Amino acid sequence: MVNRYGGDCEVCGAYVPASGGTLHRVGRVWVVRHLACADGQARVVTIRTSGGEFYRNAAGRCEDAPCCG
Known about the structure:
Layout (H helix, E strand, L loop, with lengths): L6 E2 L6 E2 L4 E6 L2 E6 L10 E5 L2 E5 L13
Antiparallel strand pairs: 1-2, 3-4, 5-6
């Protein structure tokens, strides 16, 4: 299930934007994971610059840009 709201990734701890990850139920709690971290291994790198914050997956694609998907 796709996340409706943004939150921190359970696996890597980086921010997951709305509709940028998946929801998983752990006991009674719902947690969000990046699409690249869905298998349980951290594969997302957070890059912070003066221009903003960007998220790249293992393939080198930015997850929050419409051009990279």
